Amino acid sequence: MTRAKQDGGLGFRDIQCFNDALLGKLSWRLINNPDGLLARILRGKYCKYNPILEVQAASNCSHGWRSILIGRELVKEHLGWAIGNGESVKIWSDAWLSTSHGAQPMGPAIEQTRDALVKELFQENTCRWSTDKITHLFPELAPQILSIKTSSKGEPDNRIWLKHESGVYSTKTGYQAALKSRTIDAGTGDQPAFQWAKKVWEVNAPLKIKLLIWKALHGGLPVNERLATRLIIPSSGCVRCGEVETITHVFFTCPFAQETWRKIPFKRDILLSGIQHFTEGWSLVQAEISFPPTGLNTGSLAAWVIWSLWITKNYWIFLERTFSEQEVATKAVVDAKEWNAAQPLKSNHLLVKQGREPEQKFEVICQSDAAWKKESLTAGAAWKYTRRRDELNRSTSLIFTFVKSPLVAEGLALRSAMEQAILLDYKQISFESDSKILVTAILEGSHISDLHGILADIRSLAGAFTSVSFHWVPRNSVSSVDVLAKQVLNAFVPNMV
Length: 497
Prior knowledge:
With 497 residues, the chain is of the alpha/beta class. The protein has 18 helices and seven strands. It has four domains: 5-78 and 167-185, no CATH class; 81-162, no CATH class; 196-342, no CATH class; 364-490, Nucleotidyltransferase, domain 5, CATH 3.30.420.10.
């Protein structure tokens, strides 16, 4: 029941995992804010000789400190690095190769580089990767390393939480990580694939019906076979046909149920005689399409048939009231149509939020965009500067290799545009991009692990302008630079490292 709904549970909170996640939040603050008052007090008392990530619980430490260390273990298990200047990260012992999972170079370390830092893989006196050094030490990891975009301005490396793209720990993601770890430890991590969201929770039916289907899939309905096993009733026979009443029998293999399904207005006949398990039967009927006059979509009518079969069975047992197959089928169709008619209509009106118009005080407007190829991990970047008073129209394009995502490509394009704007001595400038994620991160100061170095450089470069702004605009507003980016990308022939 504590599993997520998409994993077959009901989403109830596991108290132990949630408590560990809350403790992890406190540990995360101590790790990332070591100069805070609480952090200084605890470090002074418990971390005199070892950092917080390595210190062990002393025999005389407080219950509170032991609890913090429990949260630390959760954080430590999924802790990584976002590379900035490479001065804080060890090549062989720290997880720095990925921002989504713990990864570091494997194999015996070369004696000369055993304690080397990531910055030693840079070109001399820069924060740019040295392709020669990387291909010499890690030929197989070269593309992965070169896809990490560092800070050209020397931004320090940053510890990141690998379970979220922002790299920032939250109680929610910590709870999910703790729950997943506990599930794996309990040996229940590898379950048969079943689309719980699509086949149960997204069905267009009331929650009571979804819960009935969920219980049936888990074998949790009080059918006679289960009740007889627990000695609650003397017989396990079906009240309608006398055969052993299992969950599958009630809904699919009982002659009464099969005749009911035949009377449902589906586009084709359903063969239920060979059904061995409720999962198999539900997957079959849920995919059936009803005739258009019913006005019901796929899966909706089947769910109401399941409900009607269960309800009429209980009417027989508790009220001694019987229904024919036709009455059960009719009840399912009528109830489904009534429920659908009572649901609020979804509006088809789409509200498009336009980008904010640049203010008139900016003498130059710069639009940037990027195009990306997943197969070659290359990106074409383009940007142009326009100025109203003298009809300035300057365009530039550039190729970037080893780019892991379109978002990184957009960030590289904007950073390059800012660097060129500084060289051109533009003082008042407005930057426009069609990447809402990128612009939001810049304006709100939020974190994105893959853009750690790029975002830091953009914020640093912004200080070189007298007046600067960043705006999101719709894609059609940057169509000219989009075309230019695609042209330079299509003309590029990549070389392998």
